[in-house]
Amino acid sequence: MDVRSAIAAQAYRQARPATEPAAPAGQGDPLSRAARDFAETLRRGEETAKAAMTGGADAYALVQALAATELAVETAVTVRDRVVEAYQEILRMPV
Asked: Phi and psi at residue 28, in whole multiples of 5°?
C-alpha cells in the first residue's frame, strides 16, 4: 500500500458518514429525529447484512432488515421529490 492510499483511507475513516445528521438538534425537532431514524435504519440493515455473510444472522432477519432499509430509502426519495417539486412550483410563481 502506498502513502497516498494510506492517507486516503485515514481521511475516509475520519469523515462523517453522509447519512448521519450534522449536529444533534433539540429532541422536539421532527426533521432531525427523522434523519437520525433513517441513519439508524441504514446502519441496522448494514450490520444485519454483514452478520448474514459471516453466518451470524438468519435469512429471515436479513430479509426483514433489507425491507426496512428499502422502505426508508423509498420514503426519503419521495420526500426529496416532493420538496424539489414544491421548490420548482415556487420558482414558477410570478413576482
From this structure: -85, 0
CA-to-CA dists, residue 62 to 7, 35, 36, 76, 92, angstroms: 34, 22, 21, 21, 45
Q: What is the mean pLDDT of the chain?
A: 84
- Cα(42)–Cα(69) distance, integer angstroms: 6
Interval 3-45: pLDDT, tens = 777 777 777 667 656 656 565 555 668 888 888 999 999 999 9
pTM: 0.63
> Cα separation of 52 and 62, whole Å?
7
Domain ranges of the chain: 27-92
Q: What distance in Å separates the CA atoms of residue 79 and residue 71, rounded to the nearest whole number?
A: 12
AA letter at 23 = A
Q: How many Cα atoms within 13 Å fall on the side-chain side of residue 25?
A: 12
